[in-house]
Amino acid sequence: MESKLKILNAVKVVGFTVLTIGISIFLYGFFVSDYSAITGIGIGTVMGAIFIFLMGVFFVATEEMQEKVKRQLVR
């Protein structure tokens, strides 16, 4: 259980950091810069953060289901 919490906390911290960077890049590209490529990079970074978070949660849920099935087979 402790390892799952560590993974969830790591995913949460990394996802939040990448999300913050992505939002910053997006806002800079949208309001400050004249280059539309920077806005696209910001959008891509935000999508990457969401992907990282969802994959981490999926990984923990999959691990939990495997342990649950393993416990049922042992009984």
Please give the count of helices. Answer: 2
Q: Give the structural class.
A: mainly alpha
For the record, the count of structural domains works out to 1
The major sheet is characterized as: none
C-alpha Rg, in Å? 18 Å
**Mean pLDDT across all amino acids:** 93
Secondary-structure element pattern, one letter each: HH
Strand share of the residues?
A: under 5%
Shape: rod-shaped
Low-confidence spans: none
| Assembly status | single chain
Number of separate strands? 0
Q: Residue share in helices?
A: over 70%
End-to-end distance: 20 Å
Walk me through the structure.
The chain crosses the membrane at residues 7-31, 37-61. Keywords: Membrane, Transmembrane, Transmembrane helix. The structure is a single chain. By secondary structure, this protein is mainly alpha-helical. It has one domain. It contains two helices and no strands. Helix 1 packs antiparallel against helix 2. The longest helix has 39 residues, at 36-74. It starts with a helix and ends with a helix. The mean pLDDT is 93.
